[in-house]
Hints:
Shape: globular
Distance between the termini: 22 Å
Low-confidence stretches: 1-23, 38-42, 217-230
Keywords: Calcium, Disulfide bond, Lectin, Metal-binding, Signal
Structural class: alpha+beta
Family: Belongs to the fucolectin family.
GO biological process, one term: regulation of cellular defense response
Subunit structure: Homotrimer.
Largest sheet: 7 strands, antiparallel
Pfam family, one: F5_F8_type_C_2
Mean pLDDT: 80
Bound molecules: 2-acetamido-2-deoxy-beta-D-glucopyranose
Number of helices: 4
CATH superfamily: Galactose-binding domain-like
CATH class: Mainly Beta
Amino acid sequence: MARRKAASSCWRGEPSTSSAVMPVISLPLLLLATLMMATCATGDDDLPNLALRQATYASSVNWTWEVSTYLYPGYAVDGVTEYPSPLHASTLSLFHSEASDPTPWISVDLGAVALVKRVVIINRRDCCQDRLRNAELRIGNVSITNAAGGGDTRNITGNPLVWQQDAGTYINASATIPFDTPKVGRWVTLQIKQPTLQITEIQVFGYYAASAGQQRLYIRCNSSGRRRPR
Length: 230
Ligand SMILES: *[C@@H]1O[C@H](CO)[C@@H](O)[C@H](O)[C@H]1NC(C)=O
Ligand SMILES: *[C@@H]1O[C@H](CO)[C@@H](O)[C@H](O)[C@H]1NC(C)=O
Ligand SMILES: *[C@@H]1O[C@H](CO)[C@@H](O)[C@H](O)[C@H]1NC(C)=O
Ligand SMILES: *[C@@H]1O[C@H](CO)[C@@H](O)[C@H](O)[C@H]1NC(C)=O
Ligand SMILES: *[C@@H]1O[C@H](CO)[C@@H](O)[C@H](O)[C@H]1NC(C)=O
């Protein structure tokens, strides 16, 4: 993932400077400096991955003989994005749907309504990159789980489509899907319209709606070191 150098310019020299001058600096100035440091670190580049270790569901899960276990959807939000190739017992960091599942999906519950600025999809690392094709990404408030016999495949279209992949292309390593206007919802679902969905990780960068008012006050930094309101 390409990161702009936003935060680093804001942080340049600041921690050591502020500790050096702290004894003589006035309290209002210190508070302002502290506020600026705190807010600079919350630009779009520094948004948290809200999907990390959240509850995750899938239409099916593959029992994979190379590793003698299921490759569960939770492996796509475990924060592990690299692993040895080829697959072996230490390689338990990708989600793999069952081959017989015609339109497999994985769904992440962010836990609360969020404003999503960016989704990153990291493909399977060791092989088979061309299987990640014909994909659709949806973000909304309709819960998509695998509870109650067969899951919520029929409800998937209840959440708006926010990104669609051409049927002929595939994600070689990873894809970053940015949203200039944040997509608002609690559930993030990736489905492919063909069998065998395998992803290493799905990352959802944004902030929770409950903190949106506060977020708007934050100041954003960019690589020229200047600050501008969001
Ligand atoms: C499960 O995954 C393994 C490894 O990709 C594959 O060889 C096997 O055919 C898959 N089985 C099913 C039932 O999808
Ligand atoms: C999800 O709910 C929030 C309010 O809680 C709303 O602002 C947002 O538009 C909803 N998202 C969709 C896709 O309907
Ligand atoms: C999901 O699908 C089931 C079965 O069709 C339906 O009863 C339920 O109301 C749906 N939920 C939503 C939020 O659309
Ligand atoms: C992925 O790799 C294929 C085969 O090398 C190539 O044709 C295609 O342009 C690549 N796509 C992207 C998005 O890099
Ligand atoms: C940084 O922000 C300033 C002020 O908005 C803008 O003029 C400049 O183009 C921005 N630079 C980058 C690299 O985004």
